[in-house]
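Give me structure tokens for this 520-residue protein.
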Amino acid sequence: MSTAPKPIALPVTAVTCLEDRAHVERSAALDLEAGVQRIRLGPVSALAVDRTLHAGLTADFPATVLDARIVRTWTPRGPLPSAEDDSALRLRVHELEEEHKTLERRRDRLRARLDLLGHLAGDLLREVSEGAGTGETDRTRWAAELDRVDNERDTHAEQLRIVQARLTALESELGDTRRAMHLAEEEPAELVGHIDLTVQTQTAGPAELRLTHLTPCALWRPAYRAVLDGDSLTLETDAMVWQRTGEDWSDVRLTLSTARSALTTTPPQLGEDRLTLTDRSAGERRTVDIELREEEIGNLGPTPVLGLPGVDDGGETRVLSAPAPVSVPGDGRAHRVPLSAFTTATASEYVCSPEMSPLVTQVVRFDNLSGHALLSGPVDLVRGSGFSGRGTLDMTAPGAPVELAFGSRDDHAVVRRTEESRDTTGILQKTVITRTVEVHLSRFSAPGEQGDRVVVLRERIPVSEVSAVEVRLRKDACSPAPEAVDSEGIVSWSIRLPPGGRSTVTLVYELAASAKVTGL
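Here you go.
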């Protein structure tokens, strides 16, 4: 058995970045000798997971990998330089520390002096009150003493303010200087890993080694950039990659995957859910208790979490690949990796929901022509005037339609007013609530601007879940009549506004409830 005296380089050639870790592939060319041979390769990241280490040689070479393991070595910090070899940064730190100590002592003295002056002012005021009570009227002396104390308090308070401001600036400068000295002079402690490989072969010759393992401290998230130019939109798909694995990835084949290898396949434990039936009382049978609630229209997607969100892949593992070799430094910062881009025609409309926001938003619709699924992520929005904001893109399958909001229009104004009346009618004492919503929409145009603009206005009416409450849209009282009403209670109009035009939309609906209904 022979051992190579010098480690053989084992660079990273391919990386599959997962949601919270990375699958790293390395390769190296080996010159093997006949017999059993132990080879040391590396260095590699000390964060590599030992149980995921797998090594294999080329299939056409008669060799067997007997053992592969990660060996880690610890390099302690180097000794500090002597006093004679102090650098300018270290001397500056010493000066700042001495000045900081001096200012702290001066600050303490000023605070003690102000406390004494406060007590003295209290004593003088007490003397004035006692003297006035006994008939003593030494106004000149009292005024002079109080003025002298107030002047000294003002002077010392100003000095304390100056000292505290200087201490704040000094602490900031001292922190920056210490960090610069730490980066420039001190040798950090280092944990380095190597691969010890034991190989058995009958014949000598060259062989290709392929080694893979998992490593933490690496993740990726999708990001997009949408450029709107008239009726044409260019959507660029990128991947934001972070990694702090202890080594750089230089010119590697990068693959992005949404696989969650950390999730277990064990089904959750089912707990007992006991349901109990109770008889209603006579009063409960005579009444129907209801309540008005806000219900968000639900859809499939990931559960929102605090902090960095996960990758929404629609329940199916998605794999994306970078078209060219990528370099990602191991500095823990975000690095943008281009994945794909496409340009397509769009259809845009201006939408307003006054109950939610008094803004008119431009919404762009187009088809996903990227050839892959668009995962949920932030979108940088760019129009003719430049960067206009940031939006969110939802999970979209290949070829599916996409809706993207490009921000609000400043040349529109929306004012919404509501009125409500309540009446009791009929022999059955039915309660009827009438609600009237007025929306005033205005368009401000520059001189010479031409062309009408269509704004899609959306309001909503309640949706009843019980037969005892009836919701009725009074189309005869609405002005203009709504164009559509969907099952979710969304009422919509298409309002055409010329330059400088105004329009008023009126919505009227009724809630009718029988006498046994409570809660309205």
